[in-house]
Amino acid sequence: MDTASDSSTTNNDFPLRKTASEPNLLKVRLKQRVMERRSSPMSKRLPPSLKKKLLSSCLPPSDSPPQEPPKELSPPCEAEEYQRLPLFSSPSMPNISLAAHHVLTPDLSEAAVRAACTARLGMPLTGQMLSGNLPFYPSLPAIDSEHEETPLDTISELQEPQVRGVIRPLGRTQSSPLPLGHPLLRGPLPPEPEPPQAPPEEQEQRDLELRANESRSIRPLSRALSSPVVHLGAPDGVVPALTRRRASSSPTTGLAYDSQMLKHACVCGNNIIHPEHAGRLQSIWSRLLETGLVARCDRLRPRKATTQELQTCHSETHALLYGTSSLNRHKVDMSKLSALPVSAFVRLNCGGIGVDTDTTWNEHYTAPAARMAVGGTVDLAVRTWTGDIRNGFAIVRPPGHHAEPQQAMGFCFFNSVAIAARVLQKEHRVHKILIFDWDVHHGNGTQEIFYDDPRVLVVSMHRHDDGNFFPGTGGPNETGTGAGIGYNVNIAWSGGLNPPLGDAEYLAAFRGIIFPIAKEFDPDVILISAGFDATEGHLPPLGGYRVSPACFGYMTRQLMQLAHGRIVLALEGGYDLTSICDSAEECVRVLLGDTPSTISPLELARAPCANAVVALQKVFTAQMSHWSGLREASKTAFCSFADAIRSEKEDKETVTAMASLSMQHQHQQHTPMITSPIINCSTSSPPA
């Protein structure tokens, strides 16, 4: 009885301590074997012969004394033999071995250090594994988390006490002692001396330099060994934030672009039968990146336009039908839906769906892309008006100038340029806006929206062919209605492609009609529907003209003289990739202030063709009574560009000469009036 009680007392006073049982030893051996065989589950196992060879290379030579250590320690072998075993001990036993002071040797690779930190500190095995003997700082946010970029110069300031100060407590049982050398056993760290304060001017200059260097610092990667490379930042040449202002902080050209607009495409995926495809934007953006123009501009990531913004030019039903997905389309009033010209999608021959055979629809991506195209154009226009940027180019799709208040057509769903003009009118009180549409197709949607508005001057230069070219609208006699009469100008080319029109005809129209009217209108902001389908390379159904990119650059440069340079271009049509890339590059260079390319001397010396002269005469007849400046411009409108410039120069010289003669004549008349009394007095004789 006493023996039993003594036995129970002994058991209670001295509880059994769990020893290294067979299963736990088996765990340790298996884990150690895995660590020795391969460092990653994706790597192959070493063959036995190679493993023996590596093991023999880690051992000291047989002829050396046993007490003599090897001259060079091999990290793969020595570190694993003496450090991994205590680090990966059995979870059922206290980590007594961790009490030994652990020193990180400089020969350890970063992978080995991270493995040690994983076991000891409970840290995740994340971050980029770099080869070599670079030191590892587990507290750096630039390695393991998504923080703002830090200039490389500041990384060296993180010394060892700062690193030790952020080590987290070890995951251990309460019965195990603290490791020797643990920060908690060393006491509080002595306060570091504060660096001397620099003068405010020097500190401000230093801050500006650091901000400028942030964009050039290396972007870290955040991934595990077996995961693919994932950039935390944006691709090369792409600005990660909404905008990036140059160090000088002076207003510059803004670019609106987002890859989300590339997803709008027909489900058939055939770009041959659908010319308005994502490759248009990809090609233009790649060209601007390659030429370094993106780096010189402010990048704007477009947002999706709000429903209220869409409804400034479109009906509520139209905005909900084409601006939302099928999940939100139940909000559309079915009674109002029947009032739309096109109230249902159609099945296309390619297998996709669309509003018509040209305007394809993708249930998942079309609505977001269309709203993003509007949002980017609106933001560029607003920021140009407020002076945040000097001018801008919206590289957006789908286009918009064919979209009418209640109808989507011609690849267009929402009229981006028209909505931008309405937002400027209503929210920013802009009084006069010029919309110039140089797309080869008439902007029927823009004309309809502003047909009676005298505050918006709409000028369109397009192929018309007496109404036989898409969309069939835009005749020279369509000048507006009500208070808007005279504020709608159409240069409607006719005569087909006999011959195809080029720079000579476009320069004649711009010099003789467009620029004089725009100068007389004196706009506050200029918005350009920049379609490049009048360039060479387009098939006859898509244009067939031969206008050069330099001509678009010239017109842009001339219009920058008006509205204090506040001008925004928005991409419309253009389907030949080479031509639209050349044209977009030329326009962006001009917006940045570069010298425009030279137009061909042959085109400068060529007079407009007979069909173009007839079209220009019709415009003069329709608009002469509304714009007084056209009377003087009509004198040289039918000449070549070179002859017109020469004639204007001669006229200026004549006017200058006449003014000089007039001044001399006035001087001669003024001089006798002063001297004649004296002469009369001196020569007169007294009466007899």
UniProtKB/TrEMBL annotation:
InterPro entries: HDAC4/5/7/9, HDACs, His_deacetylse_dom, His_deacetylse_dom_sf, Ureohydrolase_dom_sf. Residues 1-13 have a biased composition (Polar residues). Zn(2+) binds at residues 266, 268, 274, 350. The keyword Magnesium does not apply. Residues 188-199 have a biased composition (Pro residues). It catalyses: N(6)-acetyl-L-lysyl-[histone] + H2O = L-lysyl-[histone] + acetate. GO terms for biological process: regulation of gene expression. SUPFAM superfamilies: Arginase/deacetylase. Keywords: Chromatin regulator, Hydrolase, Metal-binding, Nucleus, Repressor, Transcription, Transcription regulation, Zinc. It holds the Pfam family Hist_deacetyl. The active site is at 402. Its EC number is 3.5.1.98. Residues 274-591 form the Histone deacetylase domain. GO terms for cellular component: nucleus. Residues 1-78, 170-209 are annotated as: Disordered. GO terms for molecular function: histone deacetylase activity, hydrolytic mechanism; metal ion binding. Belongs to the histone deacetylase family. HD type 2 subfamily. This is histone deacetylase. It comes from Hypothenemus hampei.
